[in-house]
Fold these 2 entries.
Entry 1:
Amino acid sequence: MSNIVNEVLAANTAYAATFGDKSNLPMPPARHLAILTCMDARLDPAKFAGLTEGDAHVIRNAGGRASDDAIRSLVISYKLLGTREWLVIHHSNCGMETFTDEVMRGLLASSLKTASIDEKGWRDQTDGTGSTEGEYLDWLTIGDQTRSVVADVRRIRTHALVPQTIPIYGYVYDVKSGRLNEIPEATEIGRAVQTQTART
Ligand SMILES: [Zn+2]
């Protein structure tokens, strides 16, 4: 087994040894919150949003985009598990800003190996392992973080399966400071038509 897997297993042994009363946590998130954000390794939602086990749903993908699958998770999150407020959080210096669909499709067509990036952009070798399957995926790249947060909040807000009662807030996380900066235009679009007052 690789070193990293062994490190993960050692860390998990230590974690489980102090698991304590977390064995009785209910499945629905205690804080009725769901966050959609990027998979970027520099973002740790539990830390930057002050979450602990049982608190919230955190749905992550490349870019934190409101893909069909992200919306599937959000709908399950409220419909079956009772979340009442959603945050869409994109971030500065996102890898999704470094390429376009065309670039990704070209890279994948020339090779399946890890590409490299320099000041001229992404480059790859042609080694015969490529595939044109990349043509069939929408890579949901990002041109501008503010615009992408606004677009994703709008897509979720206007989705037929999302009730008007759930407020959706839009933020950009700054990887240089750890701060969440609100995108007021997104939050305005995501405003609930009628807010829920009772909290349990
Ligand atoms: Zn990212």
Entry 2:
Amino acid sequence: MRGGYSDRVTPEESPVRLRPEIAAAAAYAQGRIPPSDGFKLSSNENPFPPLAGVVRAIREADAYNRYPDATAAGLRERLAERFGVTAAGIQVGNGSVSVIAQLIQAAATVGDEVVYAWRSFEAYPGLVTVAGARSVQVPLTADGRHDLPAMAAAVTERTRVVIVCSPNNPTGPAVGRAEFDAFMAAVPRDVLVLLDEAYYEFITDPEAVDGSQVLAAHPNLVLLRTFSKAYGLAALRIGYAVGHPAVIRAAATAAIPLSVTAQAQAGALASIECEDELMERVARIALRRDEVRAALISQGWSIPDAQGNFVWLATGAATDAAADRFFDGGLAVRPFAGEGIRVSIGEEESVERLLKISEQIVGTLPTER
Ligand SMILES: Cc1ncc(COP(=O)(O)O)c(C=O)c1O
């Protein structure tokens, strides 16, 4: 595995004493890279290249010999305006995943529990383990949705954080506003709730919760958003949280200093300036998603509601074989062995190839999808 971490080195071989739970866990595994004439549909990236104005702003941030603004003040001010909060309520990190890590570390440690739905974003278990806390995974419903009553019921005296992922990666449905309100009413007010809205901009379901609309009512709620997906800046690594200033301050305390580059800050600010053009692209991706989902359903697949920039194929025991078929056809997708395959909505030209292969696969699956 070119560039990967060796899984052949066992913890027993370590020359130094390591934390056993870290030594036993696997490092984050990235989506596969397709052949050169193929399409990368394995990492929920944006298929559109960056806008010229954004590239220019990044190039102009050329004081490479200087550290960046550690507080990302300009961007935080700009985001604060948008959310109707003060800059003290915004934390910027090198990717929203970093801010999630900061918040978990700020709230949970050894002996504490973090509740989240499963299957969900594959980074959550590792972040909880690194904090020293314990994961409590609440199964999704059969149609890939969060079971919010079950998640609220899983909260105990030990729970410090609950993560809600809407839309859920990898299955696709968003959490509804009414169910979210009921959930927040059921969770103790001193338990931190993280609403991970990495794919917020792709949502078209009018019933879905919009974190920005409910934030003011819940001091224990923090929203996570990112420039990696809708804004197409995945390579720059920049995302943020919005929440109560005291919680945001704790996240900043848990952060690795100076990890958000000046180039990332400049790119994010420039993206906000040309948001209309970026959101037109998002609308095209969401439309493509709906068309792909409809075509898959007409092929016989049962696809959960898709509100992000990806669809979920429940391939079950045939997952690895199906992922290999996609790969052989030039499409790198994200398989979860024994469960299913997440396929990102990519370039327009990838769609025909995707649907051709999915049609071949659906006929070979043993049971109902
Ligand atoms: C649900 C979810 N949250 C957070 C992230 C992290 O995004 P980033 O760290 O690029 O902002 C991802 C990335 O795939 C994701 O799927």
